[in-house]
Amino acid sequence: MNSFFLILLILLAGAAISFALGKISSIISGTVAFLSIASASVLFFTQLKNNTYIEFPLGEIQLQWGIDSFGYIFALIVLGLGSLASLYSISYMQNKERTGIFYFNFVLVITSMVGIIFSQDFISFFIFWEIMTWSSYLLIIFNKKDVKEIGVKYMIFSAIGAYSMLTAIVMIKGNYNTFLISDAIQAGAFNFTNNEYIPILLLIGFAVKAATMPLHVWAPKAYSNSPMSFTVIFSGAMSKMGVLGMALVLVRIFTFNANNEAILPNFSPIILQQTLAWLGAITAVIATLYALMQDDAKKLLAYSSIAQLGYITVGLAIGTKLSVMAALFLAIVHGIFKGALFMVAGAVERQAGTTDMTKVSGLIRKMPFTFFTALIAIIALAGIPPLGGFVGKWMLYESLITESNSYFLVILVFFSSTSAFLYCYRFLFGLFLGQEEEATKDVKEAPITMIIPMLILSVLLMVTGAYPGILFDPIAKGMETIGFNNVTWDMSVLGNIWGNSVNMIYVWLTIVIVFIAAFIFLTLKGLKGTRYVSTKDISTSGEIPLEHENLTFQINFFQPFRRAAAPMYKRSMDKIWNEIGSGLESLFNFTRKIYTGNGQTYAIFVIAFLVLMLLLKDTLFLN
Amino acid sequence: MVISPVHYIAVPLLAAFLIPLLSKFIHKELARIVPGIVFLYSIFISITLMLQIGDKGIISEVIAGWQAPWGINLVFSPFSGFLASLMSIIGFLIWLYSYNFKKIDKEQSQKYHILQMMMVTGAIGIVLTGDIFNLFVFMEITAITAYSLTSFYRERDGAEAGFKYLLIGSFASVLILLAIMILYTQLGTLNMAEIAQKSHLIPTSLKTTIIVLFLVGFGIEAEMFPLNGWAPDAYSQSPGPIGAAFAGIVVKAGVYALVRVIFTLFDIHGAYDFLIYGGLITMIIAETSALAQTNLKRMLAYSSIGQMGFVLMAFGIGTHQAIVGALFLMFNHAIIKSLLFMSGSYLTYNSLTKQISALSGLGKKLPLVSILFGIGAFAIVGLPPFSGFWSKLYVLSAAADKNMLLLIMTILAVSIVEIIYYFRVVSTLYYGKQNPEIEIQKPSINAMVSMIALGITILVVGVYPDVITNLLENAATALTDKATYIQSVLTQNLPIN
Amino acid sequence: MTITENNIKQPIGEYIQNWARKHSLFVLAYGTGCGAIEIPPTMTSRYDAERFGIRGAATPRQADVLLITGYLATKSLKRVIRVYEQMQDPKYVIAFGSCTINGGMYYDSYNTINALDRYIPVDVYINGCMPRPEAVISGFVELQKQIASGNAYNATKYKENLEWYRENQKKIIKNWRMPDYNW
Amino acid sequence: MEDLAIKILGAVLTTIMAFTVGMFYGGFVRKLTARVQNRRGPVVYQNFIDLLKLQSKTTNIAHGFMHHMAPIWMIIASLTTLMFLPILNGNLWFPNISFHGDLIFLLYMMVFGSLGMALGAGQTGNPNSAIGVTRGLSQMVGFEIPFVMSLIALMIQYKTTSIQDIMIAQNESGIWNMFSNPFAFLAALFAMFGMFRYSPFDIVGAPAELASGPVSEFGGKYLGTMMTANSIFSFFKLTLYVNLFMAGAGNINDVGIVATLIAIVILLIKTFALYMVPVFYGWVSPRYRTEQAIRYFWAWPSALGLIGIVWALI
């Protein structure tokens, strides 16, 4: 049997079986889900060779599935993160209700993402895309919180995106008479000079999933309210499907000069490119500003995801080799660290009952491994050397400074990235540091099946920091597939086009040597006199805090910053959309009133219509 | 016995006549069982004939020995055959569903089943007949049964709805009859093939008048805006399965008539644009109204109107692919909306009110029904891998071929509205708070069977649309190929007696 | 290797450490009494305690010297004890003003303590009511001498005689809710 | 092998120099401040005495692992940044591994220490520390903006992100960047006020308000190590500024011993002169609240930074 079908079948079977077993035991159901995803991953990475394609007809539509180097990048994220997240969710979903439905949709989301990666034609692409949308919808409202608002918002924006995409697809069909992606590209469907609607509509479609301003409003609550083990996938992998599409389209908008540097063909794509880049940057800034105001760790992470996706959008929009590479690298690394962070949030939620940072604090001693993961992931998120996050950020900045002409964009991105330190700190402080309060006295470390995926992800972050080449390899191949030539990379040296570079190995060496020396010195020196005390033993001007007295500083955490940046908090896209929504709703209420429920009115309608038609018949029918 | 299209009409009429007698003298239950047998037989005929037309092309049957164009004839083309088969199947499923329907008590059930059978028969008659006056007659049969079924519950609201339907429906009858009269005075024939052949003889101003009369008349049956005032009330006040029958059968007949008039009888291009705009406006108004509904059945009714607008619009685009899409839409709408009405009426039946908010949390108590409703909702808004997606894709790509970008965007914008209100229901079903007071009455097995059959069809067609596309292609060809229709009706004479 | 200065023999390591301790005194001023008013002139331009390496410390963790300026109410004794115990060895206490020696003008008050060294060990007393900044500095210099000679080991004494101190402390502090320290 | 030995020796030398100079500068500042306030002030090597005393504390308190780690993080940040900064222009002993890093890297590495310290401060559970940290981080967002703007201006002016190249370019043209792009320099200078946290930007520690802010719970060896790290870091910051805006020190063509010593002296003069700017500014300034400080940085310094970028483009 063909490996493509086999992989999808294994996943589908996994979904069905775990659904059936959900009633019996959530652990068994979860194990089945994990096994199916893991075995699909194993099959994928062992059996499928790059650049294999299969074609089969469905009605008069020719479908093509295949895997190329570009899809491979995303398969790494989806299947890698998918396996870990499903392993994680075995314990996370334990003792919860309706686990059958959860695992069914969970595996279905992964199936559809694998399907999207397989799809080489628009029809299967769209089908898998929509399956992904509704199965994720069912997971978003799984927790039964704010179902109406979150679910409807998610569906509306997904539908806007999906239908713009569908419009573009049928337009491609209309103009070029093909559904195959490669044929469409050959025919120049994404070329701006031929038809500017198609790429723009496609970009809108992808931008929704990539949560780009102003289509991001669904994201914060959707990310924070779904079960955490799914949000790992949702934010880590699913948003990357938008990135996949955007990369695919955006790169085609550029043309390439003799040296294979991307250049823009004419005026209008520059506007598009700049618009998209600015939207990405503004997304990053706004989301960051909101992230650092959140009191709920999950929401904080949700906003942070949006911000990170903003960087990726910027990178893709700039469209040079370095920036696209940065964007794709960030996409993978974001999958890793945001996956890890959502896992951390999930672990805290499971063990401590809430992720509200005003209620939980001081978990570091109780959940050391979770904290370690959070620490590593946050360092990567903040883009601080020497972890993988830094590599991506570095490439992004370098490409912005060296290759784009929009220096103000750099400032914007940098502002967001600096402000990100605030929420990065908030996350660690809020959950793990600070006072150990009585409320969280009995919290235990998360079970091992949750710890293992988290630790694997943290190790990955360190490895990608030291040897980013591991990821450059597939990324470079993928970029060559979508149109760049001669993508060069080095195992651990990052370079820009001005010839400046950073050698991550030296960074690691310096840091590790200094770390070891300083650690030994500081630990051994006065070892006898060093003692560890509880967090209640602090200098409080001599006052002795009692056990139940809450000394943690958590509320209005960044109040001074908020005061300083007050003008930026005044408007929100959410409000604007809500106003549009309520305006439309009142309009619809008006149209509803056409149906008065009165038979006489209806009769008048009929007669009036008849008369009107008789009057207009010649103009209507005789042209 | 030779199977012929006449059996579609004759057998049910005979059965309708016999049922009261049989139930009185043999067994009471027969009144309920016989219609089922009739429907099964109709399905059997459909299958046989559909297989036959594969070799023979169009089957034209003449009733009572008179040759066309004088006699009344039945035309079983791939197009009308497709619709007739669809109607028989839906009719059967509705019968199956309502066999033990809780709200139809024993006394009434005999009446109900006869009426329902006659309604389907009338609709099938409309689709099959080759004679314009005969079409009118069948339309009256359908309409009258529909009126009485609308007010079947003998409540105030039902009576009011029935009356509204009757009022508007009588307009339709008058207008259609008037049109037929003018047509007959002009051409001296009632055979549709012949009218089609001779339609250029009619003076143009008169021709447009006839078209307007037909359009308004059939437009009422096809729920075109602003002629569809009757529909929401009729749908929501009639028994649940009848709502399904309206959506799946009656309206389809109206659309068929409208399309037949425009595509076959007259060849006027303005009418296509009229269909597009009429359909578009219908769709927009209906879907936006549906958003504001709080009553589940009314919401489904408006959604149904909107879907019919979509179908009309798809016909209006007029290319082969668009017609395939339109037929696919009709097919989908028939199965999906039937499923929605069927499952929806069990849901409302088990809630305290018909309000959507009252469905809260029923997903857990009626898991299978809710899942079926969910499948229906997902399918009707056109989410893959359910069948609704393919019809939408066909229509959209047909529109794209004609570069109707604005049209596509409007359709999709309206689809978003659709998504909102359907998902609102689904999320209420599954994620709302449960009302502990409700005692759940499980649906009967036969109802479940018919709903599951529909659900499975949706899934199968969704995953593998090839099972249906061939039929649709043939049907679309049959509709557009006017010459073959005229020729085969006027030359192919196969008297049955 | 030892070094001898002022007839005191010290190993060289200890000598250097004591020299550093002597010249770098971070003072935590516990300004409860009226004596606190004398601290600012001591620190600022006129008397400039910083030239002796004396500077203020904000928290007990960073402080070397606990400067208790004036009477201690029974209520504030608890705070003083806690602050003292939070300080890190080597640590010194300078009691400032008559009140800390014998209660001073509050000797018969119902809610002040009279002799501070019954509750925490005091290295240097500075007499006076108020002692002038000169006196304060002379007290510091005295402390520096003690440190240099290696005699400022009151903190160790406190640990050794903890039970006695606790007993005294508990006599004053009725609702004893001090945390247990793990030293 | 010899290469490696020289490198290690150079690294150690750099560290020792940075440490010594940083500590002495701190002492000078204390002394000068005292003189300005009409005091005698401590001895200039007072900081060494303080450090020695802190390190010779016999008991030390830690509230947990992150508390223990905080000084280590700071040392890592200081030393790593130092190692990747060319101390002298092209000198054999002091380039360390600077050519393996660039400005953007340093920019991020500089944050490492602050974040580490913030985490340590967070673990102590002292609310004062947490408040101090929020102020510090918020203020950092403030001053990073003009700082980054001026760095961008330099980078696009010289089409390089390497500090070495910027230094060489200044030496070749003979014009310091503080004159060739005064706006960028001013923006960076304002940012520097924030970096050094002297008045009016000392809200972070805010003596007498927040105890001593983030370091409230640090004492003994922890405080001592932090002090060391801070001294090294301030030397790094000053050298970075001198390299970027004042052409650094030393001559790439002359790397003899004498030339090196002269270069070091020049470097010290330049850094000291630069260091005095925030110190002088601090003497005459009261304290800004956090939001005032942030707004301060986002107003004129950022505007200057923007002008600097435009200037560099022209």
Plain-language structure description:
The complex is a heterotetramer of chains A (623), B (497), C (183) and D (314). With 623 residues, chain A is mainly alpha-helical. Helices cover 68% and strands 4% of the residues of chain A. Chain A has a domain at 594-623. Chain A contains 22 helices and seven strands. In chain A, the strands form three sheets. Chain A has a two-stranded antiparallel sheet. A two-stranded antiparallel ribbon of chain A has the order 3-4. In chain A, helix 2 runs parallel beside helix 4 (99-118), helix 3 runs antiparallel to helix 17 and helix 12 (297-318) runs antiparallel to helix 13. Chain A starts with a helix and ends with a helix. The mean pLDDT of chain A is 83. By secondary structure, chain B is mainly alpha-helical. A three-stranded mixed β-sheet of chain B has the order 2-1-3. The relative contact order of chain D is 0.16. The interface between A and D is large, with 78 and 80 residues.
Provide the β-strand percentage band of chain B.
under 5%
Strand order of the largest sheet of chain B: 2-1-3
Name the helicity range of chain A: 55-70%
Q: What radius of gyration of chain B results from the CA coordinates?
A: 21 Å
Summarize the biggest pleated sheet of chain A: 2 strands, antiparallel
Distance between the termini of chain B: 12 Å
Structural classification of chain A: mainly alpha
- Which word captures the global form of chain A? globular
Which features would summarize this protein structure in a list?
heterotetramer; B: 497 residues; mainly alpha; 3-stranded mixed sheet; globular; C: 183 residues; alpha/beta; 5-stranded parallel sheet
